[in-house]
């Protein structure tokens, strides 16, 4: 029965006529970059605090199981509502003047001690590292008023919570409700650094910012030149390819749109390097689109092309962290109420399991529909792989199947983890198949097995397929 399964999976990839030959050449690869196991992280929107995290059900065994599937992982709690959060030790609803600071659907609201406990306990239970975006809106004489932040710090110390990092403000370059310049925000960040350094249990927390909307170098340059270079440990941008209302199936697999990211990253890292050589750069909030779009297309199978490609581009060109907006919600890794995983979640799980720290150079196909990235395989491995193994992830944006041949290694044994649409909705499907089998949660307390198909020789990658190929016997010295 085991053999029949393998035959089914491999034969199912031969559905379309093959039009293109692609070569994966592993002979002269060099290490371009290194990434951390927490390179792929997630976010939760601060707006969830407004509703006391009711949409998250932090006690749900299913949610905790899904969270642990991404460990080690950074979780960032932030977003537009971060600049409306007022901490209070009181666990009852606090009366606030909604119009003391408001914009559209955003207004001042309280985060109770209980709300703060929930996210810290959940992150700790999942084995995640927590980053919290502080409210930069309280101001006295133009300066950030840290009074409420100090209350939060005191409570955090009393409870023994350890924070991986703090941010201060969100997307100040486009903030419509108040205006804090790049120069002034740098001063505010320096104040935050001084405060944290005075608190022993928080002194090692990273300071992350300025959380610019879009890869906008001008605001960031002014921020760094005005003292931000000393104030922050990590420089952050936010990135989305488009608004959800603009999204279409064709745009999610358009090579021209996917190609737009690399030059932005290259330019921003080069600019930051002039002011702050060696300073890590993250996409501190990012996804495909900034809303799910019509028919929840941002959660569909087709959205995974942008997600996996973004991970490859960022790793290849020097980004050190990619935090996915969001963990749960519309267009997120998980559905908003039932926490059913979207294809991006399963891709993220296998990325964590298979993709290691050393990022290789690899020649791209002349066909823009084929995109490839290569790393050493993740070691230590939960999948049983040894040092020397190589993981390639590959995307076929076209409808035609392709033949993939491997050169540059003696033993071309492969383990295939290939995704295809999960049902008749094809690219609009909310589900995915792995090697021809529908991926489903069958238990709330454990993830389903995600086994590979062992193979040797040429690989057939079906139209609109994507996934991972592990070469367990590559014996690359760079991966030893």
Number of domains: 2
How far is the first residue's CA from the last residue's CA?
36 Å
> Which superfamily, in CATH terms, is the homologous superfamily of the largest domain?
Glycosidases
Fraction in helix = 25-40%
- Number of separate strands: 26
- CATH overall fold name of the largest domain: TIM Barrel
Largest sheet: 9 strands, antiparallel
Name of the CATH architecture of the largest domain: Alpha-Beta Barrel
Strand content: 25-35%
Count of alpha and pi helical runs:
12
What is the averaged pLDDT score?
91
Low-confidence stretches: 1-16
Determine Rg (CA atoms, Å).
23 Å
Structural class: alpha/beta
What is the top-level CATH class of the largest domain? Answer: Alpha Beta
Shape: globular
Can you characterise this structure?
InterPro entries: GH (IPR017853), Glyco_hydro_79 (IPR005199). GO terms for molecular function: hydrolase activity, acting on glycosyl bonds. It holds the Pfam family Glyco_hydro_79n. Belongs to the glycosyl hydrolase 79 family. With 480 residues, the protein is an alpha/beta fold. The protein has two domains: 2-32 and 359-479, Golgi alpha-mannosidase II (Immunoglobulin-like, Sandwich); 36-357, Alpha-Beta Barrel (TIM Barrel), CATH 3.20.20.80. 27% of the residues lie in helices and 27% in strands. The protein has twelve helices and 26 strands. The protein has helices at 2-11, 47-50, 61-68, 113-126, 147-159, 182-197, 217-231, 249-252, 255-259, 261-275, 304-317, 343-354, and strands at residues 18-25, 31-34, 40-45, 73-78, 85-88, 102-103, 106-107, 109-112, 128-134, 139-140, 143-144, 165-168, 206-213, 234-239, 281-286, 321-324, 355-360, 370-377, 390-396, 401-407, 414-421, 432-434, 437-438, 453-455, 459-461, 466-471. Strands 2, 17, 18, 19, 21, 22, 23, 24 and 26 form a nine-stranded antiparallel β-sheet that branches. A hairpin with a 2-residue loop joins strand 6 and strand 7. Helix 6 runs parallel beside helix 7 (217-231). The chain is globular, with a radius of gyration of 23 Å. Residues 1-16 have low confidence and may be disordered.
